[in-house]
Design a protein that fits this description.
It is built from 17 helices and ten strands. By secondary structure, it is of the alpha/beta class. Helix 4 (84-93) links the parallel strand 2 and strand 3 (111-115). Helix 11 (251-264) packs across helix 16 and helix 12 (280-294) packs parallel to helix 16 (392-413). The longest helix is centred in the N-terminal third of the chain and has 24 residues, at 22-45. It starts with a strand and ends with a helix.
Length: 438
């Protein structure tokens, strides 16, 4: 496994009364055995396509070919999709420096733009400034009926037409949506028209679980990332489940049991704090995955994403000295010895001689360790996850781990991990208001 998980600092034997007791943890682990059995059966029956993705290779050539076509002679590529249809791609794209502060501006073309939030001013300004003749648009919607994506796609088509490029729409656009079905409308396919190629989105994989499909792997392939390695890492995280290991020996089951058992003790907030800029979007994906999958029937815990070290200077005060209603997951990568070095002479001049010769990576590693230990010393339950190397394989494993952890947690609290009824209700109301019916 390309990362190590340690829950010792969440145990009551180590941190006191706010930790998890052995009996409560063992009870949750026993309850998770049913979830693991269901996952193995779903894999065997191919009833949950997500579980087949780690070993799948047949679609990689199609994804790679589509990425090469989009990248050819392109200055910009705009990815249209919201929620899980975008966050998975963004999470993988950060490995290549996309949305990494101070780095993104220096990446080679094409420039990627993830327009995941619908905002009139932002999107209007983008369309006005883009060199449309060398821009490609990728519209992603599983159902083909996502209002935000349809609006953005229609606006892009109109802009291309107004620029006199209508004859090139088939070249400039690509869609990702579930296969067309007789009697079922697919607005995105109709909007794009017959000239635009559409990659098939597996209808059995929901948006927030789609990062390992073409939805997430297409942006990764555009950036030249090793998409086979991403799936290889995911397979590593899935392997203990399929092997029939006891729940305590399955990292995702252990994580789910810890979360749910502590939630029953009043730890109703789950904080994920990652010590790497390239994991910032991962924390955002985690928030959607956990919130949308578990927040039903007045159940679930509230996820919060944080980024270290920067959020040590904002949220950490509350985390340590505020309400004792949180479980913390601190994710670190092996950064020791990496990055610019603090020259000894400059360290003495700054009044910090002990920093002389140390690198930025040394300081970040020390801060991540110190944060986890400080939380634990103050009686806050902490789970630590450490990546030996942040790359395609380890990120693939991390993504699969948290998808499995979420599914198992849903089983433990008795909710459906794959629906989102409250979100659907809001979509229906919004369309009614636009139609003047509310």
């Amino acid at each position: 496994m390309p990362f190590k998980q340690n829950i010792d600092s969440a145990r009551s034997e180590i941190i006191g009364k706010h930790g998890i007791g052995q009996a409560a943890l063992q009870g949750a682990l026993r309850d998770s055995a049913g979830a693991l059995e269901r996952l193995r059966k779903a894999h065997a029956d191919n009833a949950l396509p997500l579980l087949r993705l780690p070993a799948k290779t047949a679609d990689l050539d199609e994804i790679t070919h589509a990425a090469a076509r989009l990248r050819a002679d392109a200055s910009d590529i705009v990815l249209l999709g919201t929620g899980g249809s975008s966050l998975g791609g963004q999470t993988l794209a950060q490995l290549a420096g996309i949305a990494v502060r101070g780095v993104e501006a220096f990446l080679p073309p094409p420039r990627l733009h993830f327009m995941d939030n619908l905002d009139a001013a932002t999107y209007g300004a983008l369309l006005q400034k883009l060199p449309l003749a060398t821009t490609r648009f990728v519209a992603i919607s599983k159902s083909g009926g996502t209002g935000e994506t349809l609006m953005q796609t229609a606006a892009a088509i109109s802009a291309v037409r107004q620029a006199g490029l209508e004859a090139r729409i088939g070249e400039l656009f690509l869609g990702v949506s579930e296969p067309a079905k007789a009697g079922k409308a697919n607005g995105l396919r109709e909007l794009l028209g017959a000239s635009v190629a559409v990659l098939e989105h597996d209808p059995g994989i929901g948006g927030r679980y789609s990062v390992l499909s073409n939805v997430g792997l297409l942006p990764a392939a555009i950036l030249g990332l090793d998409i086979a390695a991403i799936r290889k890492g995911a397979a590593m995280a899935l392997a203990p489940v399929l092997a029939g290991n006891a729940p305590a020996e399955v990292p995702s089951a252990l994580g789910a049991a810890l979360n749910i058992a502590l939630g029953a003790q009043g730890k109703t907030v789950s904080v994920l704090m990652a010590y790497a800029d390239r994991l910032e979007r991962f924390s955002r994906l985690y928030v959607q995955l956990w919130a949308e999958s578990l927040g039903k029937d007045c159940k679930g815990t509230t996820p919060i994403g944080a980024l270290g070290p920067v959020d040590q200077h904002s949220q950490l005060q509350l985390f340590i000295a505020g309400p004792r209603d949180k479980l913390f997951t601190v994710i670190t990568a092996d950064t020791a010895g990496s990055g610019p070095r603090f020259e000894s002479e400059l360290a003495k001049r700054a009044g910090e001689p002990d920093l002389g010769g140390k690198t930025i990576g040394d300081l970040v590693a020390a801060q991540g360790r110190a944060t986890a230990e400080t939380l634990a010393r103050n009686g806050c339950p902490v789970r630590s996850m450490h990546l030996e190397k942040l790359d395609e394989t380890s990120l693939g494993a991390l993504l699969m781990h948290f998808m499995l952890e979420t599914i198992i947690a849903a089983h433990l609290i008795g909710v459906d991990a794959f629906d989102q009824p409250a979100v659907e209700e809001g979509k229906v109301l919004a369309k009614q208001y636009l139609a003047g019916k509310g």
